[in-house]
């Protein structure tokens, strides 16, 4: 394929050997070549610095340990994160909800589906007592058989956009607009809320510090890789980024 890093070729055999590790990628071949180029850049830098290691992974790890330094998260940063992300540290918070789902299908024009769902939503704004009846009649979710009831749900049990809405609505509130998810269009109502409790800062401080350190390390590593790739003479491919499984 004519791919080389600082004059050192990456062979077709190496690419073929790497391919099985990238079958889940959108473009396995491109992902494999990207990985091999990055590994070559890192190993050449480790060799230039004279870093030891029993194998390639050891030498790359030694390179990161020496060259990628980040400060530990201080108390102020940890407290700021805790205040900004309080919902992540809630426990026991539940909502009891119901919905009517209109599934998007190839043979069902989206605009027609949206018009139908919109008309039913307007009916429910006028006559909310019909929710269970209309859910049984129109919902494409199995919950329609029980009036659209989803039971009690905790955070993270539904897709993000649905989850976010559930925990914003007040008890008894019917959402005034259709919610769109990958499953279709939804009419959503929260029936009841059970307030949870916030974990004390002291119990999650170490977790927060680890998370902030990991984020800082990833940013520093990304910058370091950009510098190395920018200095390297890479032939046969243009790297569109420096993210790599070997550095996650």
UniProtKB/TrEMBL annotation:
It comes from the Bacteria. Pfam families: Rotamase (PF00639). Its EC number is 5.2.1.8. PROSITE patterns: PPIC_PPIASE_1 (PS01096), PPIC_PPIASE_2 (PS50198). It is an enzyme of class 5 (isomerase). Residues 92-192 form the PpiC domain. One of its GO terms (molecular function) is peptidyl-prolyl cis-trans isomerase activity. This is peptidylprolyl isomerase.
